[in-house]
Amino acid sequence: MLNVSKSTKAPLVMKHESQPDWGLGLVTNDLPQHWEIFFEHGGPRKFVKSLARCLVAVPAAPADVAALAAKAAGRNAATLSAAKRLAKAAASPRAKARFENVKEQIAAFERLFPGGFEGDAYIDDERGRAGVQGKNGRKQAAIALAQSELSAERFESESEETLFNSAKKLVQGAGTVQPAEGATAFRDLESTDRAGTVAALKQLLHGEGDYDERLEAFARGLRLQTKDGKSKPVTWPLATVFGAFFNPQEHICIKAAPFASQALTVGLSADGAQVVTASGYRRFLQVARKTREDLETAGQRPRDLLDIYSLIWCTHHEKPA
């Protein structure tokens, strides 16, 4: 039976790169560790998210989503209502991109920062200049902090408390993690949890295996709490700040809702409500890389994925002109 949430978030449509004959696939059940997907020519399939390397999110018109959902539902009346919800979600305002294309987004970005990535406004207000320390150094200073104080050598030579303080300085100085997104909870981690956090951070930045899997493990292992002692989930901004500033050419900071909107701008799809998982990170990274590709095709020169983050965040965060 088609098992679909009653929320109005955009349906997730995928293709299997190794099985193109299966056609488009509609995610009919998004479980914590698995996807159940109905393919237009391949029928129902189930995938372990962490192993589903060949699945790629793709854009789909509302009419195509509705047709695929109806096919998945068959003649079962109960599941036909789920198909209607999917079609409605595909056409809802939440499923619309803020920008029709990257060129329109570039124009909005340059209204905020005349001269774009190379202009003084962007460098002084957002990126920062090499060699400038502290708050005025902005993201450039945070990159320098991450690469010097969270290096592999430091994890071998410094105490756990020193390393935790370095991680805390990065969270507070990067400017990408708001207090409610975990900056305050990370700062206030219990002393008994700090050693485990430092060990998990070492594995995240310098461990073996795929980064996306290490990121999911890191997020699962952080024991954040609210002020009243309740468990606090790890957000995308907190989970991704460390890798993004330590290696900004390869890794990306994520704000889920703006990235989900950005996905639609570049012809992809992503769930802005999903928790931190390896598969979710791969999808958001795909959005960032496609955005960078489209920017470069349009003649822009982003330095790294932090510039891509800034473009996505600033253009979605600011009110439309």
Question: What does this molecule look like?
Answer:
- β2 and β3 form a beta hairpin.
- The protein has helices at 62-73, 77-91, 102-112, 120-127, 138-149, 152-157, 160-174, 183-187, 191-206, 211-221, 236-246, 256-265, 278-297, 305-317, and strands spanning 13-16, 25-30, 34-39, 43-48, 55-57.
- It contains 14 helices and 5 strands.
- Residues 1-8, 75-80 and 90-95 have low confidence and may be disordered.
- With 321 residues, the chain is of the alpha+beta class.
- It has 2 domains: 13-94, no CATH class; 102-317, no CATH class.
Q: What are the main properties of this structure?
A:
5 strands; 321 residues; alpha+beta; disordered N terminus; 14 helices; 8% strand; single chain; five-stranded antiparallel β-sheet; globular; 2 domains; 51% helix
Which helices and strands occur, and which strands form pairs?
Elements: E1 13-16, E2 25-30, E3 34-39, E4 43-48, E5 55-57, H1 62-73, H2 77-91, H3 102-112, H4 120-127, H5 138-149, H6 152-157, H7 160-174, H8 183-187, H9 191-206, H10 211-221, H11 236-246, H12 256-265, H13 278-297, H14 305-317
Antiparallel strand pairs: 1-2, 1-5, 2-3, 3-4
Helix pairs in contact: 1-2, 5-7, 5-11, 7-9, 7-11, 9-10, 10-13, 12-13, 12-14
Low-confidence stretches: 1-8, 75-80, 90-95
Biggest sheet architecture = 5 strands, antiparallel
- Oligomerization category of the chains in this entry: single chain
Biggest sheet, spatial arrangement of strands: 4-3-2-1-5
User: How many domains in all?
Assistant: 2
Total helices: the number is 14
Structural class determined from secondary elements: alpha+beta
What's the SSE pattern? Answer: EEEEEHHHHHHHHHHHHHH
Using only CA atoms, what is the Rg? 21 Å
Shape: globular
> Into which percent range does the helicity of residues fall?
40-55%
List how many beta strands DSSP finds: 5
Question: What integer is the average pLDDT?
Answer: 87
The N- to C-terminal Cα distance equals 45 Å
